[in-house]
Write a structure and sequence with these properties.
Strand content: 15-25%
Distance between the termini: 33 Å
Structural class: alpha+beta
Order of helices and strands: HEEEEEHHEHHEEHEEHEE
CATH class of the largest domain: Alpha Beta
CATH superfamily of the largest domain: Histidine kinase-like ATPase, C-terminal domain
Number of strands: 12
CATH topology of the largest domain: Heat Shock Protein 90
Number of domains: 2
Shape: elongated
Radius of gyration: 41 Å
Amino acid sequence: MIFDARKFARKYAIIYSSVLAVLLIVPLITYVGLLLQIDEAKVKLSLDSKAKEIMLSMQNYKNSDKIYHFPRYKEYSAALYDERYKTIFSTLDFKPNTLTEGFHHYANRYYYVYPLPKGYYFGASILVVETVHTSSSIYLYAFSVLIAIFIALFIFSLLLLRNFSVPFEKLNRQLDNFIKDSMHEINTPLSIINLNVDLFVGKNGDNKYLSRIKSASKTLATIYNDMDYLIKQGRIEYTKKMIDMGEFVQNRVDYFQEVANLKNIVLDTHIENGVMYHCSKTKLQRIVDNTISNAIKYSNNDTRVLISLRLVEGRVVFEVEDHGVGIKNVQKIFSRYYREDEAKGGFGIGLNIVKQITEEEHIGLDVKSIFGRGTTFTYTFSSQ
């Protein structure tokens, strides 16, 4: 019932931003690939430049009486090999896995193998120039761009969706207020109808027409209580207290007795006395009322609805079994607004509320149904 514009905007801003960010990954990957190619080309050029410097240095060495000092660099290392691939001189701290002419890449090491003409360069046939290089800065840059794009898209989507949702929030608030007022207006005449029927029965006795009025008002009261629970859901916290489960269930059975009488259905109870449980009375009533009312609604005329409450291994077990039409799809009955048989009436919210409560309170719920024969709802309350 409550429409939270901020929550709506945050949720869909994240979704839209994520989708757009994923779509942008493909061109970003292409862009990163181009950056890596450019980076590799720069490394090749730098290795080529250093190789030429070393070769020029050896070519310029003419005075054999002096010791030749092989060029050394902070970020580069080099090696000379003869035609049999034996090392003549090396500042490398690793052994190249190949001395084939050209550019090679090994882990984070890049090296270039140059063939040397014979008769020069101290009898060397191969020059290897190597450098250690990493592309982590490119990946970091790409990641930063992706994060920046996501943040920008998120902020833009958030502002856009927040402004977009304002009219819906206003409309939802008006609708919510209308439903609250309507529910209040329904409750008052409903109470008056029940009170006057009771007074009339007390003075003049009961008859089938009054029973139908009473039954219809109780059915309407169940729907009202479901709607009231939905309206208050998330706004108030229901207090818990120790409840005599046997007495509570029996009271609800008595409440629905007149509804069952219209279809000549017998409410057969097997209730253990003294079963206590700490829970919310409001939530417990929604479970019991919806289960019993549905059992009556979908039972065939002149049948029995078995209602039991017992302790099993320290756990409270509440069970309702009907002999009715059964359920085609057990999973769907807990979906809001779903109705197995639309001719039976209702809004399809009762069992949805029951499912929510069982999940919130960690109550076990088991439904067994044979289509055309009947259904059994079993609730197992967690031990305390």
